[in-house]
Structure prediction request, 488 residues.
Amino acid sequence: MNFVLESGDILSSSANCIVIGVQQSQPLTGSSLTADKSTEGLINELISSDDFKGKKGETLTLHRPTGLSTDRLILIGLGSDELSESSYIAAVTAAASAVKTTPATSAALFLSEVDVTGRDNNWKAQQQVIAIETAHYVFDELKSEKAPKATLESIAIHSSDTNAEELPKAQAVAKGMSLTKTLGNLPGNVCTPTYLAEQALELETKSSKLNVTILEESDMEKLGMGSLLSVSQGSDQPAKLIVMQYTNDGDNQPNVLVGKGITFDTGGISLKPGAGMDEMKWDMCGAASVFGTMQAIIDIEPKANIICVAVAAENMPSGNATKPGDIVTTMSGQTVEILNTDAEGRLVLCDALTYVEKFNPKSVIDIATLTGACVVALGHHPSAVYSNDEELSKTIVESGLKAWDRVWPMPMWDEYQEELDSNFADMANIGSRWGGSITAACFLSRFTKKYKWAHLDIAGTAWHSGGKKKGSSGRPVPLLVDYLLTQA
Ligand code: BES
Ligand code: MN
Ligand code: ZN
Prediction:
């Protein structure tokens, strides 16, 4: 898809589909007024006849309206109040799907003229690009009948005061989200740790600034990663520690991302109940998000050093699987009593977090579908953020707001830390029944003392469950890209 910035009005556009916003119960302004004037009052007529009210979520496609040279005019209802970020995104999402249902090959969006509380035209342009790309995302690789090919080729974002680089940047983010979604949507029998390693090598061929290293189980053994290996030992699929190094800033300290990549989480011997277990194919969404972020970074090419690590393993029950009560030694030397083999994410992450010390990182962020408890605490809107550094936490919260990929800060108090006490090892891998997202973060904090660290629990945000929307969300790629660019 080709995006361009344009500044003319709707009469100057040669697109065969024009999209304008219409406010409810307000006099027409801007493009809706121009459209009305050129069509001898058609828009006002539609409003007074109640055929189109301008309500939020309402759309109407007019075919070859007399007075305009375009083939289609799409009206998007904006409601009567100034738009919040969420309502603006809902409006551009509605616009994107309305455009997609037409056979138009070119579209012009006049949706930057709408006021959004506290947001400028750069932000609006980003959201328009992401909405169009998101509407066109398909995952039909495993269907016999493929989705019809999209007709839309070029999109003009009509906007003044938008920086030219916003469009390619937003496109890079969207492309990254798309990779993240596809890796997440692929089932566990396709997307194995080995498959993820191959995807990293594939990514490596796309940029001379990217260098990929894959650590095998034999390497992990040498490094003393007893905790990571205890998770994969019940599986026939070997674990992989995938290291993607983007170097474009001499030998300055890198910012590091570490993603949880459990390509399927059965729970192991602490087996999960059957209902909805298929969703645990998405337990590698943390890893998928670091792939997507790296995809965006190699397109944007910031002057920065960035290392993305995906720690990939499958959590299975078998004759060789870890048993509740087993004690393992982590790469850090600390021992862990595994009271529940379903708390495996922290077991793979802790060794990866020790491993990345060797990069002398400026910051480390791990991203993980770590706990069901996080979904209980925060639902599906924000990811949880934990950090050992107040400033880092604030920066991440801010990036989340900017990218509209929000996170909410959570505590890691000593009282929670005590829940990890074990009679037989340095710590247990689970706390009590309550506050499970917090005790999981507390566990990780014991392996991240040597650098500035934050942990994102994305269990509630990485995918949509059930129904037609079932599938990966592509989050938190927008947040991570924004964070890395603010650091560059
Ligand atoms: N991958 C799950 C967490 C999860 C569950 C994410 C449901 C999204 C939806 C994780 O490995 C897990 O099983 N966590 C346990 C921890 C518990 C055993 C302390 C959980 O959340 O139940
Ligand atoms: Mn689990
Ligand atoms: Zn898991």
Q: What stands out?
A: The chain has two domains: 2-161, 170-487. The pocket of BES (ligand 1) is lined by residues 265, 283, 340, 342-345, 369-373, 375, 430, 436, 459 (CB under 6 Å). DSSP finds 15 helices and 19 strands in the chain. The domain at 170-487 is CATH 3.40.630.10 (Aminopeptidase).
